[in-house]
Amino acid sequence: MTAQLGALCAGAVEIGHMTDDEAVGRMRLDELDVFVDMAFDTPWCRPEIPERRVAPIQIRQTTWHRHHPPRPCEYNMSDRFVHPDGLPLEPYGAVVRLPHTCWLATNNDLPDGPPPNRAALGLPVDGLVLCTLVAPLMVDPQTFAVWMDILRRLPRAVWWLPAYELPARRNLAAAAQAAGVDPARLVFMQRCTRPQLLARLPLADLFVDTLRFNANHGLVDALRMGLPAVTCAGNNMASRLGGSILASAGLADAVLDSPDALAQRVLSLGTDAQALAALRQQLGAALATAPLFQPAARVREWEWAWAEMVRRHQAGLAPAAFDVPDQSLARATTVALSP
Fold first, then answer.
1. Architecture of domain 5-99+294-323 in this structure
2. How many CB atoms lie within 10 A of CB 264?
C-alpha cells in the first residue's frame, strides 16, 4: 500500500538552520501523524525536537540500541531476524517486525564503469582480495584480531579498506605489525566518487563484515554489485543487522553464529576457488528476486507499518508490538486516514 506521506511523516523540510522552536513550529503546521527520526545519535541528531512532541506517533528508523530508549518514541522498528521468534520482546518496547529486513535501500544509483584493473588500484592480480567498507571507528579490536588471524593463515590475501585518513591508517598499520602481519597487506582504497566505488567493488573476492557494529549500507553496496559476503550474527541490533541484510539477499547460509565460525568460513572460501565462485553465482541469481533488492515492496511494508500505527492511535489503543505482512505481491493502494 502506498501511504500519503504528507499525512504520515515529515516532508523534505530543511530545518538545519532553524532553531528548535522554529523547527518544531514548522513541523506542527503539517499536523503530522508520524514523525520519523532519521538522525540516530549522529552529530545531526536533534533530540530536542521529538522531546517537544511534533506528532502523536514518533519513531526512530532502524534503532541501534537493544532496549527502547527513554525518549518520546512509541515504536522500535526491527525485523524477524534481528528480533527472532521466541525472543521476549517486552524489554525492547513496542517492536514492529518487518518480514525481511529493517534496512531500507533504494538501490537506484549506478556504477561508473568500467573500473581500473586490480594492479592500477594497488591490489594483487592473482591474490585473494578481502574487502570491508566501514568507518574506521567500526573496526573494533575483536574484529581486527579475526582479520589478522585470517591474513596469517591466508598468505596470498590482502584486506581492502576505504580511504581512511592518515591517523587511522597509521594506527591500523601499527596494529597489523604488532599482530605479525605485514602492514602492506592492508590496502587502502584510492579516493573516488561513489559511482566509481560501486564499479570497483566487484574486483574484490569476498566482503567480510565487522562483528560489533555491522557494515549496513557498505554491505548492501557490495551485494548489489555482485560481491558475496559473510557476516556473524551477534546478540544486539548493531551486530545482527548484517545477518538481516544477507538473509534478505538470499545468502542466509553466509550468516555465521560466532567469530570463529566466520573466520573458518573465510578460510574455507579463501582456499576453495570453486566454493567462492559458487557463492558469487548464488548471489547473482538472487539479485533479481531476493527481498533486499525489491525496494518498492519494502517501502510498502514500512508504509503498512506506519498506517497500522496510525490506525491503533485513532482507535485509542496504546502502542504494541506487531508483525508486518510481506508486501512483495501486494498491489500499491492509497491509505485513507481518517481526520
1. 3-Layer(aba) Sandwich (3.40)
2. 13
CB atoms within 10 A of CB 189: 19
Q: What angle do CA 16, 241, 331 make, to 5 degrees?
A: 80
Q: Are the CB atoms for 203 and 123 separated by under 8 Å?
A: yes
**Alpha helix positions (H), 31-71:** 48-51
96: which residues sit within 8 A by CB, 6+ positions away? 75, 76, 77, 78, 305, 308, 309, 321, 322, 323, 324
| pTM for the full predicted model | 0.88
Provide the residue count of the chain. Answer: 339
CB-based burial of residue 296 (10 Å sphere; 0-12 exposed, 13-18 middle, 19+ buried)?
A: exposed
CATH of segment(s) 119-292: 3.40.50.2000
Convert the pLDDT of each residue in 149-162 to its tens digit: 999 999 999 999 99
Q: In sequence order, which residues have a C-beta less than 8 Å from that of residue 204 and are 6 or more positions away?
A: 129, 130, 131, 160, 222, 227
pLDDT in tens, 211-267: 999 998 899 999 999 999 999 999 888 899 999 999 999 999 999 999 999 999 999
Paired residues of 78 in beta bridges = 97
Assess contact for 75 and 36: CB atoms under 8 A: no
DSSP-based three-state secondary structure for 108:
coil
C-alpha cell at 144: 581486527
Question: Nearest-CA neighbor of 246 among 237, 236, 256, 238?
Answer: 256
Separation of alpha carbons 81 and 84, rounded Å: 5
Sequence ranges of the domains in the chain: 5-99+294-323, 119-292
